[in-house]
Structures are given as structure tokens and as C-alpha cells.
Specification:
The structure is a homodimer. With about 400 residues, chain A is α+β, with helices and mostly antiparallel strands. Chain A contains 11 helices and 15 strands. In chain A, strands 1, 2, 3, 4, 5, 6, 7, 8 and 9 form a 9-stranded mixed sheet that branches. Chain A has a 6-stranded mixed sheet with strand order 13-12-11-14-10-15. Chains A, B: It is found in: Cytoplasm.
Amino acid sequence: MFTILPTKGFIDQIDGFFCDGIHAGLKPNGKLDLGFIYSDTLCDVDAVFTLNKFQAAPVKHFQRYEKGFKTNFVLINSKNANALTGQSGIDNIDKVFSSLKFDLTNPIMSSTGVIGNPLPVEKIVSGANSFNLSSKNGDNLSKAIMTTDAYPKTSLYEVKLEDGSSFKIGSVAKGAGMINPNLATMLCFICTDAAIPQEDMKELLEANSHTTFNAISVDGDTSTNDTVLLLANKKSNTYNKEAFKEALRLVMHDMAMLMVADGEGAKKAVAFEVNGALNDQEAEIAAKALSNSLLVKTALFGEDPNFGRIASTIGASRVTCDENTLVISYNDVIVFNKGEICFDKAQEAKASQVLKNDKYKVICDLGIAEGKFTAYGCDLGYKYVEINADYRS
Amino acid sequence: MFTILPTKGFIDQIDGFFCDGIHAGLKPNGKLDLGFIYSDTLCDVDAVFTLNKFQAAPVKHFQRYEKGFKTNFVLINSKNANALTGQSGIDNIDKVFSSLKFDLTNPIMSSTGVIGNPLPVEKIVSGANSFNLSSKNGDNLSKAIMTTDAYPKTSLYEVKLEDGSSFKIGSVAKGAGMINPNLATMLCFICTDAAIPQEDMKELLEANSHTTFNAISVDGDTSTNDTVLLLANKKSNTYNKEAFKEALRLVMHDMAMLMVADGEGAKKAVAFEVNGALNDQEAEIAAKALSNSLLVKTALFGEDPNFGRIASTIGASRVTCDENTLVISYNDVIVFNKGEICFDKAQEAKASQVLKNDKYKVICDLGIAEGKFTAYGCDLGYKYVEINADYRS
């Protein structure tokens, strides 16, 4: 038995964690662009990283540390991804850390922004040396790591165990053009004072990735910088694996859903629920095909219940399916039922009403077997084009 | 030895073929929406069809005929795909043909348009019964089969053989939102008076698909209706396999390139040329990843030489690659060279100039081995969203 309580505030509410964000001159107009997470004791750390073959310099830099290393500092910049920058990109990270005035142990860097530009070392060093490591300003940190995000993404929970002990777990993250997960850097930093054993950290990170960040395809087709980092300072002296796993799942789900809802230019957060597939793998293939289909996304933007595009996308995904067992509905409004088109004016009007909502489900029951998966996506409109046609400028 | 001469005109220039297009009331405002191809002798026929699991009724109807059947009539409608319409969709095609006043042998139907609407049998029958089978109006046919196409797509060649004999081969096609090949119906009807043996037809259709229609991903991720049909009436009494194969390749390449150039809202036709891959398969994976990447397409629309998105898309495609052997260029302007960023102001200006063109190459040499493939795509802009947000209306 345990209880998980959503809690107001940022990761700085967790005992021993400090953070802040400043303007170091990477973004124009005084926008925050450099932040840190500092722990006053050494933390166990683990992470899951991008599958992109061109891993960014900060990802390679992290992997140079010995397995099971401890750290007390994470430096995060936006506007420059330090990707495709080769050995000099890694050397620049060392330059940054060797120029900082603080006493740091195995410092970690994380970057997001434009690929293929050298890291502005001087700006970052002078900015970072102005940090106050004893400040607790999660709000500034959450803004400093944003790129095209419309709003900051944070989450915090307190977990109370049967014996009266408790621990906290919280997160700060940035998403991006989730309308096309391809290349959309997502960074997620999770802090906890739970006394989690080192060996549980990677296991629970990976166990929860599949239904959260993977469900928005971030890992499937992924940027050069994607990172989910877990820092544990163990200050609570308490831990329960089941409770921690569920709390971690909630934190990661919160972040994933915020990323979808904040897809570049997106107005709709849509759950693509595929049931009745041959197996869970085929359900996932079909659900992700739907969440990635341009023609589906533009129809959702147009609030057009164009279920033909839904069916055709499933068929194009080549999973086992049959139009005589297929059922398609928007929330509870069935528009196609086992070979029968249910789309008279009345039904079309009901479906159109569903599509006017900010959040709804597109449900496809393939009627083949028991496989199921839910992918999360959003609509695609003019704003997405506007943002991405001139992202560098 | 043979010569292949591009020729003015339509498929109706080929001996024995007749065609026309009319307004049958499927499209608004008197637009042409129903057409036919008629041959005054029986033709050998073969086709390659969509790989979509939900094949449209006309595709299933064709496949009911016995292998090696002959035909003299193809009926083509736009605005309604007759897809997801089950057995009644096939029955409706039989209803149409049984209601026509003409003497037809194994008539074929082909449809494109909205999925999941019953075929308007009466309109099509009354329209088709007004056809004049002796008319030669390829211009009208090419317009009648258009959906979101901005312009008609036709091609015609005369092939002269050493012995002085000659034959013709021509085509009429319609494309669609090639910016996202997913669901974009493409129909291509190829007519010839070459005396091609039945057994060569499918072989040569498939042999030429890979570098033409497959290179624009139409077969990889495909609509419910995609069809490439080859009709041969043999009236020229001459044939040369090598010459026919090359002429067929030219016709199919012409149609594929016209489809890319006419991508919904597209202003740029871009060749994504991947060289130096581990093998041709990996080159194809990388090239198609580029031609399908939203972030690449929107950057091209913005005329932004954002080569970081090019590199990251290749890395995300998981093919064998290494930034220290990778070379990226826009036409002959190298922007990334084996780990070195070549992107000072001067070089960026040169690259930007290339991106102002209507047609150019994005060339990625992976520097791994000899594998190569060229995929064809286009940019993605506001117009694409506008077209697809209200396609049904």
C-alpha cells in the first residue's frame, strides 16, 4: 500500500536539489537559455538516450563516464544542440566545465536547439559562472530549456509509504514539434530523494518508456539529443520499488502528454487507441501510423471526420486487418462498423462535434485478436509550417 | 539499336485507342470527372496495384478476371474512390457495366477520390452512356481523372527500331499529395501498339516501378486505389524488348516526376540522392527518410539550408553512417564535409541560392560503401495544409 500525491511546485521542492535558469546570450531578447540542476550531495544517475546514429556531443560526453558514476551537477542549454560537431563538440563541453568556478563532480551537460553549430563556449562559461547554486528557481529552469515549446513542462509527486515514510519525485522537461517526432528533441530531467538502488534506475526508466515517451514515438524516430535523465540523492532514506515505478510512470506520462499537447502549432491532443490487433506489436505499428499520418493530422486540424484516411492509414501500415471486422469511432461515435459505413448526416454531425474538442480519442478496433496500443499525437496546421519553415532564424 | 522520340499529343495518337472525359456530376461546377479509354480491338492488359491491405473495390474487381484476360474498355472516375465499400462496392461496378449500352469485353473500372462513400452508380451510368467511343480527346480524359492535381499528366513516345518498324507508347496519369505519399492515390494508364508478349508486361512494369513510382514512395506507403495499368493492342506488329523496356521506363519516370512536381501545394521538386551507403537497400531507406521528413520538407519550403535536419534524418533512419565520412551538399555546394561544418556566411549564401530554385538535388554521400538510391520529393507549405484540412468539402 502506498499513496501518490500530486504536489505543487518544481523539482527544487525535493530535499537537496537546487536549480535556476538565466539568459546567457544564446537566445535573443534576453530570453532564458541556460539552466542547471545542482545537488548538495552526490547523486546516482542513469539515463536513456536517443537511438539516432548521430548522437550529439553531450550524449557522447555522458557515456564517457564509468558505469555507476555519481554526479552533483547538470548544465542545460537551449538554442544550440552541439550535435554533428564531432570531437570538438565533446572537447567544448570539457572546456566549459574546466572553466567553471564551482567544485563539481562528474558534471553532465545537455543541449537542445539547432544542429551543426559550434557550441558558444564563452557565452556559456560566463553565464554559468554567474549561477547561484543555492537558488531554488524551478520556474526559471523550466523556461531556460524551452525551444519551440509554448509553455514549460514540470511535474512533482510525493509518495507516502505504509510505514509513514515518504519520498518525492519530480521532473522538468522540454518537448518540440511532436507533430513530427522525427528530430524533435525532447529532454526530461527527473529528480528524486528516494533511496532507489542504482540497479533499479535503468530498469524502471526503460520499463516506463514504452507507454509514455515511446507512445509519442520520440524513441522510435528520434533526434540527436533526446535524453531522459534520472538523478537520485537518496535523502529520504526510504524506497518501495512498486511505488517508485508507478510514481515514475506518472511523471513520465505527465511529461509525454504535455509534449503532445504542446506539439508545434497543435490545438488538439489526440489518443489513437488501436484494439483487437493480432498482437500488441501490430497494434503499436497501426497506432503510430495514425499518429504520424499527415493526412490524418491535417483532417483533425480541419475538424473533418474523414474516417477514410484513418482506415487507409491502417491498411497502409500493412498490419493484419479486414474491413469486415474493422470498427472506427471518434470517442463513442461509431462511423464505420464491420464493413458498414455509419456516416449519415446525423452521425457525421456527431463525429464533427467530437472533433471540435481539444482532446479526444480515435478508436480503431481491428477485430482480429487481443493486441492493443495507444499512441498519442496531435493535429497539424499552418502554425507548424510557420514554425519550421524558419526555425533557424 | 533503336531511337525513342518524345512526341506531342495524347494516348489517342496511338493507333486503335480512343478516349474522352466528361462531367457526370460527381465534381461541382461542371468539372470533368468521368473518362474512358476504348480500344477498337481487344488488348492484352496487366497492372501493378496498391499494397494497401484495404484494396479498393475497382482493384478487387480487376483481380476477379482470369489471368491473361483481354479487354477493350477502361472507365475512370474521380471524386469517389469506391474504397472501404465492401462487396456492395464491387457489385456497384457490375451494376455500372451491366447498364452501359456499349458492347464491352471484360471492362475495367478505376476510381480516385474520397474513401468510404458509396459509388454514385446512376450519375456514372448516365454519364458513361453519353460517351462517344470514337472520340479521341486525351486532353479531356487527362482532366477528368484529376483530384487535387494542379495540371494534367501525360506522356507520349514513338520508338523506331533498326528494321524501320516503329511503335508508340503513351500514358495519362493523376497524382496527389506527394508531400505525404501515404494515401495519395496515383493512377497511371499506359497504352501501346507494340506487339509485346503478355508474359513481358508484368515483368517490365515491375522492373521499372522501383526507380520511378517506388522512388516517390507511392508503393511503399500507399493508398487504397493506386494502379498502374498497361494496355497493349499490338497493332504495330513490331516489338523489341530492350527498346520497349526503356520507353516504358521513360513514360513511368515522366509520370512520377510530374507527380512530385505537382505535390499538393509544392513549389520545389527535390531529388534526394544518397550515395556511399552500405548497400542499395540502406541508401533507399535513407533517401526515402529524407523525402518523407516533415522537418526537411518545411525547411525546403522556407528555403533554409538547414543541413542539420538532413543529417539527423539520416541518423534517425538507423542506416550505417558516421559523421566523419558524411558529406552533405545542395547541388554542388558542400555544407558538411566528413565531420567538418562548411557553413560560413559565404557558403550559407551559396546554399541559400540553390534552395531558391524550383528543382535541385540534396546529395548525401555516406562514405561507407557503394550503395546508392535517389528518392524524389518536394517541399511542404501552407497550401498543403489548406488542401488537406478540407479535402472532403
